[in-house]
Specification:
about 500 residues; Arc Repressor Mutant, subunit A; Aspartate Aminotransferase, domain 1; Aspartate Aminotransferase, domain 2; 3 domains; 4-stranded antiparallel β-sheet
């Protein structure tokens, strides 16, 4: 049998130890299955171009630890039952992580760009463990309520009439014209966005829009103003490009616009905001502040990224027009997505770009990944044009309002005067300040012990973070599970 094993005599680690590690990983990852026979020491030595003694030493160590067994007349085989203590202390996924680190860019001597260096050194994006029975994960809609049958019908409609054109590269780099026209009409009605279909670029989710804006407008060392606390994905994109981030405080009404005139922020060429439902606090930027922000951008010659990620869900009040619609549109790049409205795996978002920037953004979009899948674009265009989207939104607003109220009731019932609820009037999440005797880390761990996934808001702060703030996503949880989750959490924190 052939074994995919790589040994490197340039490393300080002895060859027999390298062989031992490679075989151990193969066994624990099930590439070598229990009972499977290994090559003889002579055959493997010839295959790897090493001495027979090297292979013998590696085999002997694995036999001693209980990974391999030497069977008389049958050669060397993987043990049928591996050592339990090793399996408990060294999970397979940890071994895979260790293997990745061992063979990563630095270990292999690969020179990365500044962008690559940042990604290599930065921590992964944190989130709530999806495996926990009750997870207050943010950004997850009620997937069980999506009209799958209607969506399937629209997809089949275009599959039945599919021509070679549908299977070929799309001729329009900005996205399907029908979808762009439908989005333009929808944004004009629902968000008072002022644009033509020609200003809309279809993208693979709002994160790609942020990435494109960053690469086109930001140079290493440029100053970018961000909400504090704020969306982690945007912050990471800016830092990866080498931007200098200036945190702008957020209060109960959203970003504090006057702080943009501070000494540190005065040179900002871009500001990222979530005005309709500030992430994560849930604050809504009032009209007066919106106008002040637009005046600041015009005065400074700066660009505003308006991330309108879940503006469709508003409870008890009418939405304020988008920033883009309150201006002439020259200083605002408007970003939206269907991930929260429909379902996350539908990687279709959109950006509304000032006319002066259309050419460069269109070209950057093509270089990034050429196009968004055509079939899904056509189905989504029909979904909008035939009124399915707005019917779905009406149903979801009612459903999410019930789940929102259930969460607020449960928090006040079980925590009483030890909780302060923030940002509860819009979106699919709210933030709560819990007064406990435990650190944020202890709260999250205690919640996990009772099967509740919870996220501290600390990760969303750029510098000094407030303690006791937690983000509760409720879109993907039933009222019963919301109530049960808060009950478990309160019991765990007694």
């Amino acid at each position: 049998m052939e074994l995919a094993i790589t040994l490197d005599n340039r490393l300080s680690e002895p060859l027999h130890r390298q062989l031992y590690e490679e075989l151990r990983r193969a066994i624990l990852s099930c590439r070598l299955k229990p009972g499977e026979r290994l090559p003889s020491t002579r055959a493997l030595a010839n295959s790897l171009g090493v001495s027979r003694a090297t292979v013998t030493l590696g085999y002997e160590q694995l036999i001693a630890e209980g990974y391999l067994e030497a069977v008389i007349g049958s050669g060397t085989r993987v043990c049928g039952q591996l050592p339990d203590d090793l399996l408990r202390t060294v999970p397979v996924n940890q071994l895979q992580t260790e293997s990745f680190a061992l063979n990563g860019s630095k270990a292999c001597g690969i020179k990365l760009s500044a962008y690559g260096e940042y990604l290599d050194d930065s921590r992964p994006l944190e989130g709530v463990d999806p495996d926990l029975p009750i997870s207050f994960k943010t950004g997850r809609p009620a997937l069980e309520e999506f009209p799958v049958a209607e969506w399937r019908r629209l997809l089949l409609r275009h599959c039945r009439t599919a021509s070679e054109r549908l299977l070929d590269y799309a001729p329009e780099m900005r996205g399907d014209p029908q979808l762009r026209a439908a989005i333009c009409s929808y944004l004009g009605r629902s968000r008072a966005v002022r644009c033509s279909a020609d200003q809309i670029i279809i993208i693979n989710g709002s994160q790609q829009a942020i990435d494109l804006v960053t690469k086109i407008l930001i140079e290493r060392g440029d100053t970018v103003a961000v909400e504090n606390p704020g969306y982690l994905g945007a912050r990471r994109a800016f830092l990866a490009q080498g931007a200098k981030l200036v945190p702008i405080p957020v209060d109960e009404s959203g970003i504090v616009v006057e702080a943009l005139d501070s000494k540190n922020a005065v040179r900002a060429k871009l500001v990222y905001v979530t005005p309709s439902h500030q992430f994560p606090t849930g604050a809504m930027l009032p009209l007066q502040r919106r106008l002040e922000l637009l005046k600041w951008a015009e005065r400074r010659g700066a660009i505003i990224i308006e991330d309108d990620y879940d503006s469709e869900f508003r409870f008890g009040s009418r939405p304020i027009p988008a920033l883009q619609g309150l201006s002439d549109g020259n200083n605002v790049i408007y970003v939206g997505t269907f991930s929260k409205v429909l379902f996350p795996s539908l990687r279709i978002g959109y950006m509304v770009v000032p006319e002066s920037l259309m050419r460069v953004f269109t070209r950057a979009r093509w270089i990034a990944d050429r196009q968004t899948p055509t079939l899904e674009q056509l189905a989504l265009a029909d979904f909008l044009n035939e009124g399915h989207l707005e019917r779905h939104l009406r149903r979801m607003r009612t459903l999410y309002d019930k789940r929102r109220q259930a969460l607020i009731r449960a928090l006040k019932l079980h925590f009483e005067d030890r909780v302060e609820v923030l940002g509860e009037n819009a979106g699919l999440h709210l933030m709560a300040r819990l007064r406990t005797n435990f650190s944020d880390e202890e709260v999250v761990l205690r919640a996990a012990e009772v099967g509740v996934g919870l996220l501290s808001a600390k990760i969303y702060y750029l510098h000094e973070a407030r303690s006791g703030e937690f983000v509760f996503g409720y879109g993907g949880l039933s009222e019963r599970r919301i109530s049960e989750g808060i009950k478990r959490l309160a019991k765990a924190l007694r």
